[in-house]
């Protein structure tokens, strides 16, 4: 399932080619080549998983399928429904639905005792200011269905929380979602954030990488920038992160395939912000290599196809990625300094993913990254330094 907004079509298609697997691309829109590709593309209603599963089942009667893999969040429910229907390896639809809705996820974590920020679910007409006051201190207001920090806003007092809720509802409308849907208000969890990349196999979580996010993420908007692995947190903390991530996946009922979790660590306190039934987004997976040069996409396809997964260990070197934030709204005129950024020792690549002349929108409304930079070095500190140095060379010209 390749949602049309994905950054990852090429990486998954390349991984499939490497494995000699034939691909049928399922997407919401007709592809330019749909007609000539016949049964190798399928236009699917990804938002209606049962309908998508019917469509996939009909295709599978003509063209048997060995695995159904969702790339990014958009296709996870359709993939789960279709995999259940065809008896293929995958997650239960209800488990994936819990993971796709932050209110259901919080409820599942609460039932299972997974540590998380204190939260309230609010509906239109609720008094968000009073609810924020009841939670106390700074809060985070967020939609339950979006991702990439879109619509996630910190509010330091009750009035700001009410204003944030109005803004989040407008963002939902722009995103084509229901502006009257539930929102979450949760206590702001201070501390250092980490991201966990993992693979579930028969309900067991294998941690593939723990990324530190060394830029402070204190809001009011939560632009993701730096990801660096291996984590520099103490071993015991990393073990606790792995343990709570596994409990979070189990609480949702997820059993197979990639997961991406985000947690915050504050001294001895650990909270799970979320766990998604997909791998890391954007082009970030390009920072990861396993065994003898296996990509994360290949690893995911191997798991889905039941192929051997020996050598799943990430390479020894430290690695990182910087998601280039969009500094302000306008039209992208030019990104200067790309060659200088590429020349910084340790930098493996700079990819600008917005074409010049296109409109750019920063968070919390925006839903795209300006681009991605990759680095490798002997230590995570050097990776971080290289990414910062390279970032300083870039000049983003927005009209
Ligand atoms: N309760 C919270 N406390 C502190 N930071 C938070 C909280 N909720 C979200 N954030 C910040 O906002 C980011 C995005 O929120 P998240 O719930 O992960 O939604 P998304 O699906 O958009 O990634 C997080 O990575 C984190 O930095
Ligand atoms: Mg998140």
Measured between the Cα atoms of the first and last residue, the distance is 35 Å
Strand content: 15-25%
Evaluate the radius of gyration: 21 Å
User: What would the average pLDDT be, to the nearest integer?
Assistant: 95
Biggest sheet: strands, sense, closure? 4 strands, antiparallel
Q: Shape, please?
A: globular
Task: Give the helices and strands as they follow along the chain.
Answer: HEHEHHHHEHEEHEEEEHEEHEEHEEEHE
CATH topology of the domain at 9-97: Rossmann fold
* Bound compounds: adenosine-5'-diphosphate, magnesium ion
Helical run tally = 12
Q: Report helical residue fraction.
A: 25-40%
The computed structural class is alpha+beta
Residue runs with pLDDT of under 50 for 5 or more positions:
none
Strand arrangement in the largest pleated sheet: 3-6-4-5
Write down how many β-strands occur, each being a DSSP E stretch of 2 or more residues. Answer: 17
CATH class of the domain at 9-97: Alpha Beta
- From the 3D coordinates, which CATH architecture of the domain at 9-97 would you assign? 3-Layer(aba) Sandwich
